[in-house]
């Protein structure tokens, strides 16, 4: 592995594909190594151990659990460069972005280390003088998670942090495309003193098989999933058999709206960070752009000029802003959406170059209409379709015309419009004059078919706790 100074981060790797899963660098095609695979029986045994360990973990004072999480946070920050390089190698995002994700992921460990001490109950005024009423919060038990490849560290820590802080044990299956980061960040948790049975990382040759184990095992009481709406729906159906609690962070189709009173330069800057971070492979990235007809040409011209300054290449190379997409099928899907939009009348503002390998040249499409296929689908790539609108009512109707409701963005300097539009948008998160909204201190999640539950903030730990009501009689 290239220039990983803390070799203990790679201690989990196995020597051959017979014993594990080959992990490939999407920028070069190089096989980086082999991640260990757990047999079905090994996963079942691990869940049994997790259930036993959870009881001891939950009995530990919240302050003590928080202290271990704080140590984990410190080790992640200390190993930011190695973790970032490892992530770039297996996922492709530019090194600066990868290191930024490490810091972002670590912030959830730190936040929930502090929240562990704040899982307050409450006292309730009783309806009669002979009773005393109160509530307490208790961990749900064994929690599991299935996480995606696009944020291979942050999507784990955003779930593991609150689960461990609440007193749950935690079993996670990362993506087969990016498992190295998951095992590495877990190794740092073990170095911090978190027991191995309390935090487990598992892989299987068949992802559906692991999902089936998670949703059917009676000892698992909570499932958290980040991924597609289609898979999330299947997991929810499977989890309904024994009424598991679920959290679902699913697909998105984020509108990015520019009103005629917007600061256009600020809107372009926000569009760049929202759309092209991680080569457009984020669930909250802007997916379709609605720009008022009065400022449409100005925005498109400035936006495309900024896009032409992006540098596509290997994320380890100096100055690269846009890495590869994750797979050949992803690249083909993106290009198919572009070709379909052009057939329907859209035009690239600048010529899109066809690049070798898994690289996709970022492109802005103009003359897009709301009824085109590219507008209704999650692109998950560096493509920005721009649509014109004329009034607020038309805009709201188009922006909400989707099954998804995760993130949305708009730019306006009219305070009356700001509140009106923010309240009218049917999304779990709204960025107002801001293109980068994710933070550990605010609740992350969507509405409609973008999922249920919230991650981060004070709400995040409640997803892993049950509220128990206590009624004291005979007073």
UniProtKB/TrEMBL annotation:
Q: Which GO terms describe its molecular function?
A: succinate-semialdehyde dehydrogenase (NAD+) activity
The answer on whether this UniProt entry bears the keyword Oxidoreductase reads: yes
Q: Give every Aldehyde dehydrogenase domain span.
A: 15-469
UniProt keyword annotation of Calcium present: no
Stored PROSITE patterns: ALDEHYDE_DEHYDR_CYS, ALDEHYDE_DEHYDR_GLU
User: What keyword terms does UniProt attach to this protein?
Assistant: Oxidoreductase
Record GO biological process: gamma-aminobutyric acid catabolic process
- InterPro entries xrefs: Ald_DH/histidinol_DH (IPR016161), Ald_DH_C (IPR016163), Ald_DH_CS_CYS (IPR016160), Ald_DH_CS_GLU (IPR029510), Ald_DH_N (IPR016162), Aldehyde_DH_dom (IPR015590), Aldehyde_DH_Superfamily (IPR050740), Succ_semiAld_DH (IPR010102)
Catalytic positions are 249
Tell me the protein family, please.
Belongs to the aldehyde dehydrogenase family.
The protein's name in its UniProt record:
Succinate-semialdehyde dehydrogenase
């Amino acid at each position: 592995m290239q220039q990983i100074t803390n070799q203990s981060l790679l201690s989990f790797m196995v020597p051959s594909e017979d014993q594990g899963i080959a992990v490939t660098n999407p920028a070069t095609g190089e096989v980086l190594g082999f991640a260990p695979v757990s047999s079905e029986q090994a996963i079942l045994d691990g869940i049994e151990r997790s259930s036993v360990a959870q009881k001891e973990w939950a009995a530990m004072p919240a302050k003590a659990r928080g202290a271990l999480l704080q140590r984990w946070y410190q080790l992640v920050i200390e190993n930011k460069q190695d973790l970032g390089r490892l992530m770039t190698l297996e996922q492709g995002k530019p090194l600066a972005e990868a290191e930024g994700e490490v810091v972002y992921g670590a912030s959830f460990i730190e936040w929930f280390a502090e929240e562990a001490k704040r899982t307050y109950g409450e006292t309730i005024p009783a309806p009669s003088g002979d009773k005393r009423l109160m509530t307490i919060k208790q961990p749900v038990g064994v929690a599991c998670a299935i996480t995606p490849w696009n944020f291979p560290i942050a999507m784990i820590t955003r779930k593991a942090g609150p689960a461990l802080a609440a007193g749950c044990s935690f079993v996670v299956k990362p993506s087969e495309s990016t498992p190295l980061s998951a095992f590495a960040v877990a190794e740092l948790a073990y170095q911090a003193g978190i027991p191995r049975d309390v935090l487990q990382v598992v892989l299987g040759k068949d992802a559906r098989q692991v999902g089936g184990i998670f949703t059917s095992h009676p000892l698992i009481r909570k499932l958290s999933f980040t991924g597609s709406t289609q898979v999330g729906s299947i997991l929810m159906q499977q989890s309904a058999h024994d009424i598991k609690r679920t959290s679902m962070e699913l697909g998105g189709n984020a509108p990015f709206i520019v009103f005629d009173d917007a600061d256009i330069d600020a809107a372009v800057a926000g569009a760049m960070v929202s759309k092209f971070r991680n080569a457009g492979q984020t669930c909250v990235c802007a997916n379709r752009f609605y720009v008022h007809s009065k400022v449409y040409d100005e925005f498109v011209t400035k936006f495309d000029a900024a896009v032409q300054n992006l540098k596509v290449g290997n994320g380890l190379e100096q100055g690269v802003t846009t890495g590869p997409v994750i797979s050949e099928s992803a690249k083909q899907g993106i290009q198919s959406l572009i070709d379909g939009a052009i057939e329907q009348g859209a035009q690239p503002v600048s010529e899109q170059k066809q690049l070798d390998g898994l690289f996709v040249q970022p492109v802005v499409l103009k003359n897009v209409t709301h009824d085109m296929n590219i507008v209704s689908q999650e692109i998950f790539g560096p493509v920005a379709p721009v649509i014109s609108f004329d009034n607020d009512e038309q805009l709201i109707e188009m922006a909400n015309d989707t099954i998804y409701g995760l993130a949305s963005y708009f730019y306006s300097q009219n305070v009356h419009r700001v509140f009106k539009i923010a309240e009218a948008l049917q999304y779990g998160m709204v960025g107002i004059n801001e293109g980068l909204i994710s933070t550990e201190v605010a609740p992350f999640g969507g509405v409609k078919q973008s999922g249920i539950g919230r991650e981060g903030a004070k709400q995040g730990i409640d997803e892993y706790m049950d509220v128990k009501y206590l009624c004291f009689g005979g007073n």
